[in-house]
Amino acid sequence: MFIGDSISINQWQSLLCMLHAAVPTTSGIITQDLHNHTVSTVTFKHYKVSVMLFRSFYLVDVDKETIGRVLKLNSVRNGNLWKEIDVLIFNTWHWWHRRGLKQQWEYVQVDGKIRKDIDRTVAFRTALRTWAKWVDSDVDTNRTKTTPFKGSIYPTGLPLAGYAVKEVIRNIKKPVHLLDITMLSQLRKDAHPSTYNGFNSMDCCRPHRAKHDALHNQYLGYNVKCNSSIVDLQKLNKGKWTPPYSNRATQPTMKKAFPWSLCKALVKP
Q1: Domain interval for residue 105
Q2: What residue stretches are annotated with the Trichome birefringence-like C-terminal domain (predicted)?
Q3: Where does residue 40 rank: exposed (0-12), middle (13-18), buried (19+ CB within 10 A)?
Q4: pLDDT grade for 215, boundaries at 50, 70 and 90
Q5: Phi, psi angle pair for 71, to nearest 5°
Q6: Same structural domain for residues 186 and 133?
Q7: CB within 8 A of 47, min separation 6: which ones?
Q8: How many CB atoms neighbour CB 124 within 10 A?
Q9: S-S: 102 plus which of 79, 98, 211, 263, CB 3.0-4.6 Å?
Q10: pTM over 0.70, yes/no
Q11: Residues 35-59: pLDDT tens digits?
Q12: Is 208 among the domain residues?
């Protein structure tokens, strides 16, 4: 189960596309939307495997009260739905600093007191401690994986050249700063495919078709269209260009069947 925001959604979609490419037919694939569209499940019936997504911006609870939506930093009742899962993958932070219309709550409750707002880093740390207590008290390590792979045996890694660069830079006496784009790209390879791929749809399975992938767009801070190959460097140099913030989140809610047809374009090894 992936638990988190759009980063978790992208990871979930990407894994499903890879699994779909490996199964001989879609006849045994079942899609479900549960708990008021909070949980999306895709089950590969013949293999007795389910890949699930639990949407949670903050991991802790957000409840609708008479005063409005309350972010409860000491409560993680949603954990009751996570207990029986074999592998849990958590993600949070992206939404903690949001304000205004993008803020998903009106009040914060901490230690029994309700406030209009508190320092976001303090709130984040408090929520993580609540989540950590849940892990210690409710996760059965005999069933649920907390470390799926050890670093020494994980079947991937950075290119060897990357290690060579870091080793050499460590031995330089004068300060040299390395912007490790390769490492950064490994953290989130697909970014928001539906926003940046130029097709205006969820297309995580055809990244090779776009001229400008999402990673380069996010590094530049510029939403480069697929039919554009030149960035106006004059605007950049003269300071007239401001990196826009895109809020065009077009992730599927699974109210309809997962778009398996998009996955057919995967490049087979």
Answers
A1: 2-138
A2: 1-146
A3: buried
A4: very low
A5: -85, 115
A6: no
A7: 23, 28
A8: 18
A9: 98
A10: no
A11: 667 788 989 888 889 999 999 999 9
A12: yes
